[in-house]
Amino acid sequence: MPTPSLSQPLRRLWALEKFGYSLRVLIALAGSMGLSWYLGQPALMIPLFLGIIASALAETDDSWRGRLSALLVTLLCFSIASVSVELLFPYPLFFVLALAASTFALVMLGALGERYATIAQATLILSIYSMIAADQRGGVALHFWRDPLLLVAGAAWYGLLSVLWNALFAHQPVQQSLARLYRELGLYFRLKAALFEPVRQLDVEERRLQLAQQNGRVVNALNAAKETLLNRLGQGQGRPGTKINRYLKLYFLAQDLHERVGSSHYPYQALAEAFFHSDVLFRCQRLLRLQASACGELAEAVQLRQAFRYSEANAQAMADLEASLEHLRGQSNPAWRGLLRSLRALAGNLATVQRQLASASNPDALQGEQDSSLLDRQPQSLREAFNRVRQQLTPTSLLFRHALRMSIALVGGYAVLHAIHPEQGYWVLLTTVFVCQPNYGATRIKLVQRVSGTVLGLLAGWALFDLFPSTQVQALFAVVAGVVFFATRSTRYTLATAAITLLVLFCFNQVGDGYGLIWPRLFDTLLGSLIAAAAVFLILPDWQGRRLNQVVANTLSCNSDYLRQIMRQYESGKHDDLAYRLARRNAHNAEAALSTTLSNMLLEPGHFRKEAETGFRFLILSHTLLNYLSGLGAHRESLPDDASDELLESAAQQLAASLDDLAAALLHKRPVAVYSEEEDALAQRLEQLPDDMDDGHRLVQTQLGLICRQLAPLRSMAVHLLKQGAVEPGVQP
């Protein structure tokens, strides 16, 4: 028997998304612990560890140059925040004013993008760490520079490790983001295959809902991959390197695959009824499942930097589908004529997916994009940054509400801890910062996770204090706990909270009594969580149902823009330029936002989620509409002149206008007509297909007809939503 090689497990470990992050944290914490032991000053460990934690929380994906620039900004913000806390700490009135103003300003920086929001959040956390350090010495300002210097030194130490890591392994985040994208895409393929099951009384709505929710995850993965690539392309996006160019092609391939697998060419239940005694839908289902597996294999190949081999079983499945279609055509059933044309379009789409996945084994040979530019949503100047923040300075802005809520919550927490003088009271503010989220649902989840994780960590700490009384062993446990926190904080927050609680207990036990921190930590967590929950519930609450009409309106408006861009492509031929890709991405982003809004609504109190069922029905209809649009977009080509051109052009304009009108009515809560004679007449005209029409025009007219038929149920749901969402007297939306 050959000896198993260790290279594959090590390669898999190295490829894990959290491995590099955790290893950097391990090196930073272990190095700081070693320094404090070497100097014989265990008290140094606490501020150094806290600085490392804050710096790691401020880290975002970037190139090494971008990471270095972000690090310098972060260290500047950390220094100002920490020194300000030290200077103002003895003066409660000035301190609370500065706390409120700085909190509001830092949260509002989130208008500039995720990178700035992350740095601002980490700055706020480090300022509270500075309060804890000042509170530990009773607020005495002797050597006020010491703790800020140690906190910033810890942050700089981790930041330098991060810059060095990004310089040495610049492409690893790109590989990981692309792998995650193809895994999510594979799951979408698999859920799409479930729609082709020819079973009577199939719960199509439930499967479409799952598909719509998975589509949101695919869109999030696409956005994350785009940002990762954009960070490597740098300013100007000119002449990317060989590796980045290869990854860029794989990203554009994923975009095209997403559009093609998301396309629908006919209602699936009608196909299931018509071909119930045929195996053609089983053939479609099997091919989609094999393509789903191929996406998973491609994800693994990208992540592990291995060659991708497309399975021969896919080619055989495609041949079987073609044979099944040929058998149906041979039966010459006149009732199947229109359905078989839709099946041929479906088979042609799947064949294109087949070729594209097969070509992924050699990304360099993929056809280059005519326009490979990516839209950078980051502000490009100080003026643009200022305007973005200024636009959010209104009570209707969700960010403004969150900033105001966070400021009031921290001021309230500061007042409470001064009123009751709890031991280690500034942990209350830290808990409030972590628990208070932009909406009620997210806050509710975080509150439960924070409290349960704290209890778990305190129980584990109490047990480990007895089992391992050695301070050296406890310091090692603190390092391990810090690594666990960063490895799990975005996926298993309860465990992450338990880990960070252990780190705090073990660190403070190095210089004092760790046992004495258990009850204060529990009390502070409960109090801080209560303040956060009260703030989200009482201060300008963002109940999702009150803005559901706005989110739905945005979805319809973006679909209208997508339709217009698609029809322009039929005039000029397929050209994946930035305008087209942006319209397509906006349509998918809008639907993902609707899915997220509905998920958050389910976590709200019963009265505020009364529109959830209507919202989910709207999500299903919206995703079906997007599927029909994707089917239209998947077959883009320049059409030859035909007598139906005028009908197609006017129909597309009317459909886009109807979607815009419906969106405007929802946005402004105007009455919506349940039935439109014009749309019904248009649908009937589009469904009249002459036998001599070429396949290209036939497909476009069929897809436009499907889109037109989707307007009636959308109108019905809009009327239902507006009736349920009628604003009661005295209630502000």
Main traits of this protein?
mainly alpha; Methane Monooxygenase Hydroxylase, Chain G, domain 1; 0% strand; disordered N terminus; disordered C terminus
Provide a compact summary of the structure.
The protein has 27 helices and no strands.
Main sheet makeup? none
CATH class of the largest domain: Mainly Alpha
Radius of gyration: 29 Å
Order of helices and strands: HHHHHHHHHHHHHHHHHHHHHHHHHHH
The tally of strands reads 0
Tell me the CATH topology of the largest domain. Methane Monooxygenase Hydroxylase, Chain G, domain 1
Number of helices: 27
Tally the structural domains: 4
- Average residue pLDDT: 86
Shape: elongated
Residues in helix, %: over 70%
Looking at the overall shape, the CATH architecture of the largest domain is: Up-down Bundle
Instruction: Flag low-confidence runs.
Output: 1-5, 727-733
Distance between the amino and carboxyl termini: 71 Å
Range of strand content: under 5%
Structural class: mainly alpha
List the helices and strands and how they pair.
Elements: H1 7-15, H2 17-39, H3 45-57, H4 64-88, H5 92-108, H6 114-136, H7 146-168, H8 172-194, H9 204-233, H10 242-261, H11 268-274, H12 280-304, H13 312-330, H14 337-359, H15 382-391, H16 398-420, H17 427-435, H18 440-467, H19 471-488, H20 493-509, H21 518-538, H22 548-572, H23 578-601, H24 612-634, H25 645-668, H26 677-686, H27 695-724
Helix pairs in contact: 2-3, 2-7, 2-19, 3-6, 3-7, 4-6, 4-7, 5-6, 5-16, 6-17, 8-9, 8-10, 8-12, 9-10, 9-23, 9-24, 10-14, 10-24, 12-13, 12-14, 13-14, 16-17, 16-21, 17-21, 18-20, 18-21, 19-20, 22-23, 22-24, 22-25, 23-24, 24-27, 25-27, 26-27
